[in-house]
Amino acid sequence: MMMLAEVETFLSRPIAPTRRVALGNLELPVDPAPGFGGILLGAIAARFAPEIDSEMHAELLHLMSQLESGNSIPQPKLRHRLQEDTVGLQRCVHRVIGEGEHLEFHFDEEQGTPAQHVLCAVYAAARVPWDVVPAVMSTVHKGLMWKGGSESALLAYLSGRSGVMAISSVGDPISWALSMLDLRNPDTASPTRKDVQRAFRTRLRAAHPDHGASDDAAAARIAELTEARRILLG
Question: Quick one: pLDDT band at residue 114, thresholds 50, 70, 90?
Answer without folding.
Answer: very high
